[in-house]
Structure formats: C-alpha cells, structure tokens
C-alpha cells in the first residue's frame, strides 16, 4: 500500500509518515488496497465491532487498543415513519470519530510511532487522544480557542497535550500542520490521512448489515471537512463494486448556514469549495471554511445525484430539543442533519416498504458541548 496524491499521482511510502504530497502538496488517497466484504453468514459469528469487516479494512485490529467501537444501534423516532437514526454518539468517546481514530492508531502502532499530532474542534481530537493513550503514544491536540469546555476536559482526561489556537478553524489546522512537519511525527489527521476514511466507511457497512443486505435510498450526512460523507461514499462504492448493492444511495450533505462553502459551491456549479467568511455557529464541528477535501466531497455528492443544503442555528436548536424529547441527547453539530430532515430542508422523497427510506447519523454526544447550568434546572 502507498499514499497517492489525488492531484499529481505521486506515490508516498507509508513509512515516510506523509500527510500531504511532497511535490504539489495535494491530499493523498490510499492506493494498493482492495476491500473484500465478508459474506453475511460469516458476519453472524463475529463480535459486534467495526473490526468484523476485517477483510475490507487496510489495517488489522489491535486487540489491546480497540474499545469495542462500532455496530451502533439503528433507531426509529416517534412520528417519523420511514426515517431511522444511527446512534454513533454511543461510541466509546462519544462520537463517530472513533471509527477513523481506531484505524489511525492501529496504523501508527504498525509504523512504530511514539508521538502523534492532531487538530480538531473537539471530537476527532478526543477520539485520537483516547486511542493513542491506550497504545502508549504521546498525543498533542491543536484546538480552536473557542472549543467547548466539555471537549477540553475530555482531552485532558485522556492525557493529551492541548494547544489552544486563536483565530479560525483553519488557523488551528495550520498550527498542527507546522508541528506535523517535524521528523518522526505522525499527523493523525481526520482530514488528510485516508486511513480515517476507511474507518468511517464502516458506518455504511453496518447499515448494510443492519438492513439485511440493503442500503436506504437516501443518506443525510453532516459536512464540514466531509469525513463522514467521504467515508460513506467510499463504503457505498465498495459495496457497489462487489455487487452487494445495485445502486448508490443519494447523499444529502448538510452544512451550517453560517459556514457553508460546500453548499455555495454546489449551488454555483463549482468543483471546489467557495470562498466564504465564516460566522459563529453552534455547530462547531462543521464550521470549516476551507475543507481540504472539499472538491472530493462535491464530486461524491454529485456522483450520487445528491445535493447540499444548509440549516440555521435556530433550526439546529429546535432539532436538539426535539431529539432530546425523544430520549436522544446530542450536541448541536450532531443535530444538524436531523434539522434538515425534520424541517423539510433536505427534501427527501418518501418511499413505500418496511425499510427506512432515509438514515440520519447522530454523530456526537450532547454531554460534550452542554454548558454547566448557572442555576438549578426547573422542569418546564
């Protein structure tokens, strides 16, 4: 296996710990690996973790690192027949980012890495820090200065060294990139390292298994850096190539209205993210003004005949409350996709039959972003 630049085609050995092309500085994809899905009869006898799809993953399970990540439940929501929610906020560190972090740390272990660097608005950093500490690796996490207190506390609990960066999310990424260029440092980037996407594709494999060897007609997914969109697209393509599904589900990507470079680019027919001025939003996890793989996200959505929509902070707040009233406590970023569906912004066509026609992820726990109440709470 090598890492291949998507722009110029240059190959980079894994042992060089590359995170972008040494020539043109483009993003890298994994080359030299072919996924092979185990059949459903074989899967019935395997433990309920993402590692059950071992033949389709580019790195083997590290038994002493894994925390049983994967196979999160698929839930209904009262009053919304035909829609299902996949509860990835029940992952070990409270977000879907555990899918990719587990693979990144497994790869780092194979490469005999001792120190990792990550940048994150919170969830990816927490996931990488948790798996790094289980693997005995030091971990530096660069976060925006405005990162919520709950996420900072989680990072500290895992023993990560936190670097709070003033400015935009892109300023945080730039600071981490500078540190990652030091010799011997493994940049555990959920954006740049393609092994992360091979972890998030297991979201799709689980859906396919949970729905009896099928996928829903529509996937509604949050999009900031687009790691879940790209992982989902990768998983769908692999299932299609192995003739385990007969069509790609439509991908509807959701952005916060205050920071929507992909939605603007999609609507304007652009191949790369539009230039935008990022405004404050409660959906901090998808507030990415310049997504490095944005051109790939746009291409993936278009290849599925999908579209990209935006939701306001008020719509996200309402979605958070509605989900909580259904017993599902998630952070604002995790509620963005449900906001698009429940308000009709996503414009998902209904379909007959017992299977859900659309699935929405709940990506992060509400405990990560909930502020401490200033006074005792009173029931409404």
What secondary-structure arrangement, pairings included, does this model have?
Elements: E1 2-5, E2 11-13, E3 28-31, H1 40-43, E4 74-75, E5 83-86, H2 98-110, E6 115-119, H3 123-134, E7 138-144, H4 149-157, E8 161-165, H5 169-180, E9 186-187, H6 194-200, H7 202-210, E10 218-222, H8 227-241, E11 250-256, H9 261-268, H10 294-303, E12 307-311, H11 313-325, H12 332-342, E13 358-361
Helix pairs in contact: 2-3, 2-6, 3-4, 6-8, 7-8, 11-12
Tally of contiguous helical segments: 12
Quantity of strands, as a count: 13
Percent range for β-strand residues: 15-25%
Average pLDDT taken over every residue? 93
Explain this structure.
This protein has 380 residues and is α/β, with parallel strands linked by helices. 32% of the residues lie in helices and 15% in strands. It contains twelve helices and 13 strands. It has helices at residues 40-43, 98-110, 123-134, 149-157, 169-180, 194-200, 202-210, 227-241, 261-268, 294-303, 313-325, 332-342, and strands spanning 2-5, 11-13, 28-31, 74-75, 83-86, 115-119, 138-144, 161-165, 186-187, 218-222, 250-256, 307-311, 358-361. The protein has a six-stranded mixed beta sheet, sandwiched between helices. A four-stranded parallel beta sheet has the order 8-7-6-9, with helices on both faces. It has a three-stranded antiparallel beta sheet with strand order 2-1-3, with no helix packed on it. Helix 6 (194-200) crosses helix 8 (227-241) and helix 7 crosses helix 8 (227-241). The protein is globular, with a radius of gyration of 19 Å. The model is unreliable at 372-380 (pLDDT under 50).
